[in-house]
Design a protein that fits this description.
Blueprint: E1 2-6, H1 17-20, E2 28-31, H2 44-55, E3 60-65, H3 71-75, H4 80-95, E4 101-104, E5 116-120, E6 126-131, H5 132-136, H6 140-150, H7 161-165, H8 167-173, H9 179-200, E7 203-206, H10 225-234, E8 240-245, H11 246-250, H12 257-265, E9 270-275, E10 278-282, E11 285-288, H13 300-309, E12 315-318, H14 336-355
Parallel strand pairs: 1-2, 1-12, 2-3, 3-4, 4-7, 7-8, 8-9, 9-12
Antiparallel strand pairs: 5-6, 6-11, 10-11
Length: about 350
């Protein structure tokens, strides 16, 4: 297991590489070039600059999160091939600098979605939460203004400005795209890129829908075991794999995360693990928590034990954290609580390894 930490770059992250390098057991980052629009090629010189900066702090850059998919590919539009060619060139460019895994998602229009970015817990910390009834009452065209206010000036990961600027137009286009069509469009994309991934030794790791159900009437397909199995069957290659996110999938209590780890891990299809906890507060309603099992409804010990059982050699990172000790920053992506999460996960891993010698 390789512990890494998500970093959005010097100009889009309040956290420095120097601070990340001080977190015990963290050996690398999941990198991102936030200013490159979805569908554009990642230039080699920019990748080289990012890698050089990361390496200067004795950290590795082997995972990119994310190379975002242009909406034309998800929609299956006539111009999708040009964006797929750009994606292929980006894969080749990333490969030249030692990138081993690309985390991506195939969620139409919206990436992750929350009804509150600043819910206060009993201990005074602030977290993101989701209430399906509140979301149902929201006009998606006004959602962005509420998010920008809640983010306190910080941009939101996964929400590209060019996508949001075309929100009304995109919502109209997706009225004719159902779940089956989304699978067809994903298959077309994977059939084009996976042979290149095999040549370049870069593994694709699709991130589950967050939350794992349809929103605003728009289908989401990476929602549970059956659909994830269908996705990896679209192109039968080890390079077509998963980012198994305990928090995203775990928002649906029917998703058994340890069982899914055993199932997909035994098939060598988990390339990246995101680990976090949450507490159920009702149907399609949850609040994010600190990482320890005692803080939420997911058994993080059993999750880590499952990764040990499958001899997981891939990358793992602590996922969304609370905002604690007065920290201000990007919702879910402060330094302090994610650092505590990394330490907790590393401690569990050490104990499990020693108890299973």
């Amino acid at each position: 297991m390789k512990m890494i930490f998500r970093w959005f770059g010097e100009h889009d992250d309040s956290i420095s590489l120097k601070e990340i390098a001080q977190i015990p057991q963290v050996e690398g980052i999941a990198g991102f070039l936030s200013d490159i629009p979805a569908g554009a090629v990642w230039p080699k010189q920019r990748i080289h600059k990012l890698k050089k900066r990361v390496n200067e702090h004795k950290l590795r850059l082997e995972v990119i999160e994310s190379v975002n998919i242009h909406e034309s590919i998800k929609l299956g539009s006539e111009n999708r091939d040009q964006y797929i060619e750009n994606y292929i060139q980006t894969i080749k460019n990333l490969s030249k600098f030692g990138i081993k895994v690309i985390c991506y998602n195939f969620m139409p229009v919206f990436d992750w979605l929350r009804s509150d970015l600043q819910e206060e817990l009993a201990d005074g910390s602030r977290v993101m939460s989701y209430d399906g009834k509140k979301v149902d009452r929201v006009n998606p065209l006004y959602l962005i203004e509420e998010y920008e206010e809640g983010a306190q000036g910080f941009s939101l990961p996964g929400w590209e400005p060019e996508r949001l600027n075309e929100l009304e137009n995109l919502l109209e286009k997706y009225k004719v795209v159902d779940e089956e069509q989304l699978f067809v469009n994903l298959k077309y994309f994977l059939q084009k890129i996976i042979p290149v991934c095999e040549q370049e030794n870069v593994k694709m790791a699709i991130h589950p829908a967050d939350p794992p159900w349809d929103v605003f009437g728009i289908p989401r397909i990476a929602v549970g075991k059956q659909n994830l199995q269908r996705i990896i069957n679209l192109v039968d290659s080890e390079y077509n794999g998963l980012t198994l996110c305990s928090g995203s999938l775990g928002a649906n209590p029917e998703n058994n995360i340890p069982e899914m780890i055993h199932y997909f891990g035994s098939r060598k299809r988990i390339h990246f693990a995101h680990i976090r906890n949450l507490k159920y507060t009702g149907p399609e309603k949850f609040v994010e928590t600190a990482h320890p099992s005692s803080e939420g409804d997911l058994d993080i010990y059993e999750i880590m034990k499952a990764y040990h059982d499958i001899d997981f050699q891939g990358y793992v990172r602590p996922d969304h954290g609370r905002m604690i000790w007065g920290e201000q920053g990007r919702p879910g992506y402060g330094l302090y609580d994610r650092a505590l999460g990394a330490a907790y996960l590393s401690g569990l891993w050490e104990a499990i390894c020693k108890n299973n010698k």
